[in-house]
Amino acid sequence: MPSSIFDSAHRRLVELLKQARDELDITQAVLGGRVGKSQSFISMVERHQRRIDVIEFVALCRALGKDPTSVFSLLISETD
Questions:
Q1: If pLDDT is split at 50, 70 and 90, which confidence band does 78 have?
Q2: CA 6, CA 68: separation in Å to the nearest integer?
Q3: pLDDT score of 70 more than 90
Q4: What integer is the mean pLDDT of 9-32?
Q5: What is the CATH number of the domain that holds 30?
Q6: Which helix (H) or strand (E) holds 54?
Q7: 56-62 contacts at long range (C-beta below 8 A, 24 or more positions apart)
């Protein structure tokens, strides 16, 4: 089984988070600050060089003003 960092569902998850960041028109540095991470952490996630765990996913969603359950439900519906 390939690493989930290269999985299409993980790529889509990152796209959803990046889209939300773009909609808010905030930088990677601002988002990183909101979750207590560096700009380089956000950059690595968005470039698919680092996968995020469930706790990071929830923190990122909340920092972006998104409901984690709704984002995850959208991801699941798209990957079924």
A1: confident
A2: 22
A3: yes
A4: 96
A5: 1.10.260.40
A6: helix 54-63
A7: 57/13, 59/35, 60/17, 60/31, 60/35, 61/17, 61/20
